[in-house]
Amino acid sequence: MSPLFKFKGGVKPRTPTTHKTASAQAPIGIAPLPSILVVPLHQSIGGHPRPLVAAGEIVKKGQRIGAADKWVSSAVHAPTSGTVLAVEERLAAHPSGLPTLSVVIEPDGQDEWIELEPIDPNALTPERVREILRDSGVVGLGGAVFPSHVKTEAARSMLMKELVINGAECEPFMTCDDLLMRERAEGIARGVAIFRDLLQPERVLIGIEDNKPEAINAMRVAVKAVGEVFSVVPVPTRYPAGGAKQLIRVLTGKEIPADRRSPEMGVQCFNVGTAYTAWRAVAFGEPVLSRIVTLTGNVEQPRNWEILLGTPLKEILPLMRPKADTNRYLMGGPMMGFELPSLEAPIVKASNCIIASSPALFPPPPPEMPCIRCTSCAQACPHELQPFELYWFARSRNFGKTQEYKLFDCIECGCCSYVCPSHIPLVQYFRYAKSEIWSRERDKKNADTAKARFEFRNAREERDKAEKAERLARAVAAKAAEQKAASADAPTDAEAAKKAAIAAAMERARAQQENVQPRNTDDLTAAQREEIAEIDKHRAPPQ
Amino acid sequence: MLSAILIMALGAVVLGAALGYAAIRFRVEGNPLVEKIDAILPQTQCGQCGYPGCKPYAEAIAEGEEINRCPPGGQEGVTKLADLLGREVKPLDIEERPKQTACIDEQRCIGCTLCIQACPVDAIVGAARQMHTVVSTLCTGCELCVTPCPVECIRMETIHEKIDNWKWKYPVFEMKRVA
After folding, report:
1. What's the rounded mean pLDDT across residues A261-284?
2. The pLDDT value given to residue A231
3. Cβ of B163 and A453 within 8 Å?
4. Which chain A residues are Cβ-neighbours of B162 within 8 angstroms?
5. Does A94 lie at the interface with B, CB-CB under 8 angstroms?
6. Among A23, A316, B103, B152, which residue is least crowded by beta carbons within 10 Å?
7. Is the confidence at residue B55, as pLDDT, over 60?
């Protein structure tokens, strides 16, 4: 076995159990069908899938309701059969509490599948597999929800050395990957094989934190059972070992520079849950309709549940039975998660954990004290940044400086805030600075476009004016030249020709009139002549 | 004595020639300060400053015009200009408004093309006696198309916060009242 490497910093959880045991006792439960499903169309990084259904339509389980609109985008499906009530803006599972375009489905209780085509995974071309992954909505289920098909393309410049499968699950409270590995290890192993076939790495490393011995065993057994040579590597329990860059560092010793993607370093990383859904999609044609969610925290019944995507939070409260003093719900772990804006917010592909929070479990943060530059944060930062400097510049809105201090290398893991003796919410400052910088970049881009278009418009108007003037000048010149030419030649020529033509035409008409034979007044009988005379007499005006 | 004067004079002539050549060879087109000012201005081309576009206003600022005439740039723009030019920060002379985008009521549009001619960034699509529409991603919200419309079918809509442009807020803490 190859030696393990270390990443700098990180935090060691205070208790060895890290609140994980509570939810890891019971097997994964299947959540009952909710009374309503609100499926957001935008559930992955990248494009906004366009809706394929309209209100009133009947959908079946697994039917595509949102199609990927570009390469970095992923499809969305109906989690069960039922009627589409509306396609409208609904509250998103997002810290902003803003709405996003969602498909509201009323389940009919039949849970009737679309017709699934059995697929032979071995007969597929890599391009077809990527298409299946995209159209099945397979995205990174570790929480970043990056479309997986995009990640299965190796860099041209670099041979793929390692494929890292992330089963570390370092956040406290969270056990969804742990339980998935314990119960569905074979599916994960087969999913890993799909990614292996696409990327052709030299070796496959499955990294699991050493506080999950059951999962490690289950994965080892499963890997052997499917006849693969993936190595299952226990990694030391240290937050954030489950960060993609940290796990790659621990398993391979490679550090991914900020401006490069991991395939350029010959390594790629997928979550275990992603591998499982990839296998279901490629082998059975089943799209991603549900995910394993850890329901834990201040609850009577902490457990992992397989919950349909789009299930509103209020529908899963009976499953977790929150205690009376629960005041808010966090999505994601306690380190990186955020507070859900309302009980209406749906479960999405990124929802790995819902923590019921109470003032006793997560006391409100004490007031922020001044930074004493103790550098605890710098020691804890797994990316070797200097959070105290970043904080200083973010606080004074000196965004240029924050970028000089590599703000965008920050993975917002929260280690710095966790160790800060002055209780400074450092990550909040960094998130603020990042979104301000993005907003400024957007504005700058828009301004540049507007400027280019304005300048082009002015140039075009100038050009049009010049061209018009030139045309006018040319027309005047042509007319003058014509007149000059006309006055030089015999002026009567044209007119004479015209007159001659008219005369010829008149001559022709006369000749034709004369040639009409016989005339209808010739060869008349006496009776007819009399009749004509009679009529003429009547015609003659009265005297 | 004479040789010293000659050497100095020769030096002056040589350096002067070099400088003169450089001035012609490396001549900078336009005023570089204007470019810098123009880069700070928001390029809405709205004319609210009283100049026909951002570039003319940038030129005017370089000549000494006030720096607080640009409402779309906001107070932040004024601060940036003050930093660049070493002038006093002043409050905006017109009130800052939230960002807007033009929107054509397509039922009422008669296809007169007047708004198309007014748009400084070619963000309106349409043809004579055909319906017009605004390409909202290109619209700078300058309002120049609103007045020319003979049937008043163009309105300005405030751009609301969406998830895509939502920003994390500056951390604020409620001060606890000490009893």
Report:
1. 92
2. 93
3. no
4. 98
5. yes
6. B152
7. yes
Facing B163 at nearest CB: one of A100, A431, A438: A100
Fold observed for domain B98-161: Alpha-Beta Plaits (3.30.70)
pLDDT digits (tens, 9 = 90+) for B89-99: 888 888 888 88
Residues of B in Cβ contact (< 8 Å) with A429 = 171
Of the pLDDT bands very low, low, confident and very high (cuts 50, 70, 90), residue A103 is: very high
Using the Cβ of A425 and the Cβ atoms of chain B, whether some distance falls under 8 Å is answered with yes
Interchain CB distance below 8 Å, A439 and B43: no
| pLDDT higher at A19 or B58 | B58
Asked whether the beta carbons of A214 and A201 are under 8 A apart, the reply is: no
Q: Is B13 helix (H, G, I), strand (E, B) or coil?
A: helix
Q: Which residues contact B63 (CB under 8 A, 6 or more apart)?
A: none
Q: Please tell me the predicted confidence (pLDDT) of residue A52.
A: 93
The ipTM value here is: 0.83
A429·B38 Cβ contact <8 A: no
CATH 3.30.70.20 domain span(s) along chain B: 98-161
- Render B56-99 in DSSP notation, one character per residue: HHHHHHHTT--S---TTTHHHHHHHHHHHHT------SS-----
Are B43 and A451 inside 8 Å of each other by CB?
yes
pLDDT the model gives residue A517 = 61
Closest among A148, A125, A180 to A46, alpha carbons compared: A148
Å from B162 to nearest chain A CA?
A: 7
Q: Identify the residue whose tokens are 């089943």.
A: A286
- Alpha helices, DSSP H, located in chain B: 2-25, 32-40, 54-62, 74-85, 114-118
For residue B19, report the phi and psi dihedrals to the nearest 5 degrees. Answer: -65, -45
A98 contact residues in B (CB cutoff 8 A)? 161-163, 166
d(CA A531, CA A508): 35
Ordered domains of chain A (ranges, CATH): 20-28+117-285 (3.40.50.11540), 376-434 (no CATH)
What is the pLDDT, as a whole number, of residue B175? 62
Contacting A with CB below 8 Å, chain B residues are 38, 41-45, 53-54, 120-123, 138, 140, 161-163, 165-171, 173, 175-176
A389-395 LR contacts (CB < 8 Å, sep 24+)? A390/A426, A390/A429, A390/A430, A390/A433, A391/A424, A391/A426, A391/A429, A391/A430, A393/A433, A394/A429, A394/A430, A394/A432, A394/A433, A395/A429
- Which tokens is A220 given? 């080892």
Q: Does the B32-85 domain belong in CATH 1.10.15.40?
A: yes
Within 434-463 of A, beta carbons closer than 8 Å to B belong to 434-436, 438-439, 442-443, 446-451, 453-454, 456-457
% of chain A exceeding 70 in pLDDT: 96
Contact between chains at A428 and B42 (C-beta distance less than 8 A) = no
